[in-house]
Each structure stands twice: as C-alpha cells, then as structure tokens.
Amino acid sequence: MINFNEPIYINKGLNYISDAIFINKRLNGDGVFTGKCKKWMESKFSSNEVLLTTSCTHALEMGAILCDIKAGDEVIMPSYTFVSTANAFVLHGARIKFVDIRPDTMNIDEKLIENAITEKTKAIIPVHYAGVACEMDTIQEIAKKYKLLVIEDAAQGVMGRYQDKYLGSIGDIGCYSFHETKNYTMGEGGAILVNNLNFKERAEIIREKGTNRTQFFKGEIDKYSWVDKGSSYLPSEMNAAYLYAQLEIAEEIKENRLATWDFYYQGLKILEENGFIELPFIPENCTHNAHMFYVKAKDLDERGNLIHYLKSNGIGAVFHYVPLHSSIAGLKYGEFIGEDHYTTKESERLVRLPLYYGINKQDVEYIVKKVCDFYIRH
C-alpha cells in the first residue's frame, strides 16, 4: 500500500531530542531548540516575532485574542477550509461570513470580500490552500480601506511565497501548522507570526498563560504576574528539537516535494489536455511549496470511482474538506454571503494524491500510471 502521507523523519531529529533530554535537561517550552526554531523563522520569513505554539489551531486562537474578537464581531473567510479556521473566532463569539472560492486556486475569491463587509466586520482570514497564495495585494488593500485586520491561515503555506514575501508574513498575523501531515512537522505543533508590532508584547503574554513571565526572564521586570487573558500555548522542547532538524534543510525538503509535484504534473498533463481532469493552477506571482498534489475529476460520482479504483490498486488517495457552511456548526455560527458557485462543486471534484518527503519515485510513476489507466478504462 502506498500511504497517502508519511511523516518526515530526519536522523538528526532524534539526536536533537536526545540532546534536549540528556544535555540541555530541558523538556518544557521555550528552551534551546524552541529558541533555535524561533530565530530561524524570524530570519527566514522576516517577521517581527515568531512564537512556536502547540498547534496552528492555537496560533489562530491567539490571533483571535490579539485582534480582540468578541461577541457580535464578524470575520470573513472561505468555507473551503479546516474547522480550526472558523473555530478560533467562534470560540470568542464571532459570527463567520463565508464567501465563495476561486475555482482555479481554491482560495477565497478576493473580488467577493467587499460584499461581505458590514460595520461589524473585524478581520479577513485568507487561507492559502495547498501552499498557493491568495491574492494578498487586493486583500491588503480592502483591509486598509475598511480598517480591518488580516490573519493569514498559512497552515499549508510554510515556505510558499506571494511575490517576494513568504506566506504568513504579509498580514497582521500569520499562522503555521507543523502537524504530522504538513511539509515540516513536530508531530503536533504550529507557530504564530506577529507581523504587526502593536501585538508583539501582548502575544508573548497570551502565550504564557496571560502572565508577563517572558518579560521577567528577559530581565525587564522584577517579578511576573497575571496581567491578561491567555492559555498554555508552548510546545515541549522535544517537539521543537524534532522540527529544528528539518528547518536546517528546509530548502532541500521543499525541492524534494516540488520534484514529486512536477513529476505528477507532467505525467498527468495529457489527461488534462484531453479534457478528463483538471490539474492545479499556480498564479505567476506565486511560488508554491508543493504541499499537496490534487486532480479534479468531472463530478462527485467520478471522484468516488477514482478514489475507489486507486485504493483497490494499493494507492491511498483521499478527498479533502467538506465546505464548512454546509455543516451543522457552520449553519449555526455562520452564513454564506452571495452565491455558492464554486465552493461545493469544486470541493466535490478534488482528489489528493500521495505526496511526502522522500516518496519513492517508482511509487509516483505507478500512481500516475493508475490514474491514466482509470481514464483509459472508463
């Protein structure tokens, strides 16, 4: 069986975990390896402050607190996203305004955002699907016009770029995921990029359970105390140690994934040219990170048949999100603004193929062959 995903493993990761335990003798958060990850990301992504978190979900929740989201506020986002994107704001009483996606990138349609803005709107949450950037210039212009905050859900976007900027570093706040299924992993984990300097000090407080403990350790105050709302968002040093080994070879990992992505694209292009499937689209101003490779079948039935055929041939292909606006919670906590021209239709066509660091080239060749065989047979 060719697994849909296999978590990345770097030998040095185990060595670093051992160092954290036996040499540094520090397992809780904000130790040596957390500091190394933080420094690496702040330098790489040119962010004012990067803080490791226990998940991208928690990074988004921190973003909601920093933006002072409260009952009655509204936030705008695509419906085609993971539940965490919405939950982070619903937890603080916000109502979600879902807008349609672009069929080419599966990202929020930037042209529809203004129609969803009301006097209650507080923030826009662009989601960089598959590591391909949303149209951030337009989104930033809209945010500036209406004095809104921008929180990038870049869970899938680590090392992807929009023009010359890394995803997550463009809005007021960026959120990364280092979940097992992502390009770089610490098992469970994430990071918040605090790009707006107005949020820097408070972000440290929120992450430290609402205390000014970080300032205390920096020697800025004599003692620390509870000064704000917050929670425990610090991952352990073992998680950070595992991640740091990957950050050291981040470019190599990205290039390895891109090679697999390109092989899929070239191998399946003939099917697109003959009108059987659609392949991913990468805008000219975007540099993607090969987070995933997907194909779009004709419709829901064909997608189901394709997934079944691939699984019967030992290939772990899967579909992705069910649009949030059609879910029980989505109907309760949000509403779809405008017409659902593409969100549901396009989501029902999408099939994700196995893609991970180090996947065997022969396996990828086999997958391409079996996708082609399906369309030859049918």
Description of the structure:
The chain is α/β, with parallel strands linked by helices. It has two domains: 11-247, 3-Layer(aba) Sandwich (Aspartate Aminotransferase, domain 2); 250-377, Aspartate Aminotransferase, domain 1 (Alpha-Beta Complex), CATH 3.90.1150.10. The chain contains 13 helices and 13 strands. The protein has helices at residues 11-23, 32-45, 56-66, 83-90, 136-146, 200-207, 213-217, 237-247, 250-273, 300-312, 328-333, 343-347, 361-377; strands at residues 49-53, 74-78, 95-99, 121-124, 149-153, 161-162, 165-166, 173-177, 190-194, 286-287, 293-296, 334-336, 350-353. The strands form three sheets. Strands 1-9-8-5-4-2-3-12 form an eight-stranded mixed beta sheet, sandwiched between helices. It has a three-stranded antiparallel beta sheet with strand order 7-6-10, with no helix packed on it. β6 and β7 form a beta hairpin. The two termini are 23 Å apart. The mean pLDDT is 97.
